[in-house]
């Protein structure tokens, strides 16, 4: 796991610990990583509303959350992530699936051993 992602998950864990303490006996300790303020799993509509809010806040066009998955795969490949790594992250079992789900681009992949350092960092739009 990239150290940047690990740091983000640890920070999220610390934030969630505060939510757990604030919710007290209302907390549902079911082992979820991403939860509601009371520890329950996130509902589809909550995630959907947050996604739409982030798009508006960033001044971006309307898009499905699933579209971001395709974009993420394309960006990782452009940053020089190995195709096998991208396939693993996306859950693709074949090159055919990868070709279907990633966007074609005329841009050449950027050389470099650590694309994760450019991808997994806190965003200015989530602050």
Q: Output the structural class.
A: mainly alpha
How many extended strands?
0
The gyration radius over C-alpha positions equals 17 Å
The biggest beta sheet reads: none
What is the first-to-last residue Cα distance? 24 Å
- The shape, in one word, is globular
Tally of individual helices? 6
Give the helices and strands, then pairings.
Blueprint: H1 3-23, H2 44-58, H3 65-78, H4 83-90, H5 95-101, H6 116-119
Word description of this protein:
- Helix content is 54%, strand content 0%.
- The protein is built from six helices and no strands.
- The chain is globular, with a radius of gyration of 17 Å.
- The two termini are 24 Å apart.
- The mean pLDDT is 80.
List keywords for this structure.
127 residues, mainly alpha, globular
């Amino acid at each position: 796991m990239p150290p940047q992602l690990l740091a983000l998950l640890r920070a999220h864990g610390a934030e969630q610990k505060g939510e757990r303490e604030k919710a007290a006996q209302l907390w549902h300790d079911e082992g979820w990583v991403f939860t509601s303020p009371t520890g329950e799993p996130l509902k589809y509509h909550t995630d959907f509303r947050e996604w739409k809010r982030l798009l508006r806040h960033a001044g971006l066009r309307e898009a499905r959350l699933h579209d971001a998955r395709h974009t993420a795969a394309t960006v990782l490949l452009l940053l020089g992530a190995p195709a096998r790594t991208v396939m693993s992250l996306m859950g693709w079992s074949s090159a055919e699936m990868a070709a279907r789900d990633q966007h074609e681009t005329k841009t050449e992949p950027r050389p470099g051993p650590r694309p994760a350092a450019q991808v997994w960092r806190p965003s200015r739009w989530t602050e």
